[in-house]
Amino acid sequence: MTETTALETVYLSCRERLTRLAAVLLGDDDEARDIVQDVFLSLIEHPVAADKAEAYITAAVRNRALDRLRSLSRRQRVERMLPLDDDTLLSIADSDDDEAAMAAEVNSFVASGLSPSVRDVVREVFYRRHTYREAAESLGISVATVNKHVVSALRLLRNRFKVKS
Fold first, then answer.
1. Could you count the other beta carbons within 10 Å of the beta carbon of residue 138?
2. pTM, rounded to two decimals
3. Domain end: 71, 90, 115, which one?
4. Would you put residue 82 in left (φ > 0), alpha (ψ -120 to 50) or beta?
């Protein structure tokens, strides 16, 4: 079996799993596909032994996805975790049952688990994509208070939805 044929075999057997891995890390299916494709293309230029290819590719996809996340600003990372818009906190369309249930639970928690002042700040900062200063002016509070409410909301969400292993 030639190196190209071996690479094709690994690509076909791992592509979907690796794309899901990258998509979970990034929260973006298109970027996940791009990263998986880039990793496989890099193997054409820098081949890896066939018996180690799957482990190497898995690590490379994970590392590239994490590098991509690190390159994002804090605000962009938060927006990826909680893609918010004016109508809903999380879009549950096009997601499987587990994701839909989790999104519904997050929606419910944000609607009823946050105080009105924290919820208002979350709406200004994440729905309307206002800066902290714009949110402060809109709500008639200080920038420090906006920051305090955002930190509080994120801490509550993290604690409430902590994955138990």
1. 15
2. 0.45
3. 71
4. beta
